[in-house]
Fold this protein.
Amino acid sequence: MGEHGPFNSLHEAENTPAVRAIYDKVRDPKTPQGTLRDLSSGLILEACEAAGIELGSQDRSTITWLGNWEPYQCQVIAGLIWRAAGAGSGRG
């Protein structure tokens, strides 16, 4: 299992470097409110950007909404995008 999966358990997704970094950041009392959502949705946005996916305003709005989920859940979605993009390009 790599940074982008496949994930067989919550523990695997939760212990990726990206997710651990998010949890570490939001534990800091100086971190502004809303940062968890922004960082979680950022996992998905980064995967979409790397895959060359053009996003519309509704796409971005939905990804922002998904950012309200836990970071490990967003990491699973991002992992699916990374792996699908890799498979389509022969990298996966």
About this structure: The CA atoms of residues 26 and 35 lie 7 Å apart.
